[in-house]
Design a protein that fits this description.
The protein is mainly α. It is rod-shaped, with a radius of gyration of 21 Å. It starts with a helix and ends in a 10-residue tail after the last helix.
C-alpha cells in the first residue's frame, strides 16, 4: 500500500520538479546571453 502511494506521489511530483529545474536553468542561460548582448548594442541616438 505504501509503495503504491509513494509511486503515485513520485509520478506526480517528478515532472513538476524537472520542469522547475529546467525553468531555472533556462532563466540563467537567458540572463547570461543578455549580459553578453548588452555591450554589442548600439546607442539609439548617435548625436
Amino acid at each position: 500500500m505504501k509503495s503504491r502511494i509513494l509511486k503515485a506521489f513520485v509520478a506526480v511530483v517528478a515532472p513538476l520538479v524537472i520542469e522547475f529545474i529546467v525553468k531555472k536553468i533556462s532563466e540563467k542561460i537567458d540572463q547570461k546571453s543578455q549580459k553578453k548582448e548588452d555591450p554589442k548594442q548600439l546607442p539609439a541616438s548617435t548625436n
